[in-house]
Amino acid sequence: MNRFAAALLAVIGGAAVALGVLMLGTGALAGLLWIFVFGDDPWPGWAMTTLNILIPIVGLFLWAMFGWQIWLRLRRLAQ
Q1: Residue 2 has pLDDT above 90, yes or no
Q2: Domain segments of the chain: what residues?
Q3: In 10 A of CB 12, how many CB atoms?
Q4: What is the pTM assigned to this prediction?
Q5: CA pseudo-torsion sign 21, 23, 29, 35
Q6: Residue 1 CB partners (closer than 8 Å, separation 6+)
Q7: 72 in Cβ contact with 13 (< 8 Å)
Q8: Residue 14's pLDDT is what?
Q9: Which of 35, 25, 32 is nearest to 59 (CA)?
Q10: Which contacts (CB < 8 Å, 24+ apart) does range 51-55 have?
Q11: pLDDT by residue (tens digit) across 21-67?
């Protein structure tokens, strides 16, 4: 397999898997916070700011992690 094609596949595949995991994780976290911590009351500003900062950071980390794992498996198959 061409290295460029493998890298492109790893980047796109990693982004797709990371997006799915991030969406499920964000929904689960927001649901847990809503049910057990904040409820129907207005959420404090620090909670929303923290989520707005952490979600993109975690998403980029997941993208790098899944992309790297795909890259390693494609490289192992090419050898």
Answers
A1: no
A2: 3-78
A3: 12
A4: 0.87
A5: negative
A6: 74, 77, 78
A7: no
A8: 97
A9: 25
A10: 51/26, 55/22, 55/26
A11: 999 999 999 999 999 999 999 999 999 999 999 999 999 999 999 99
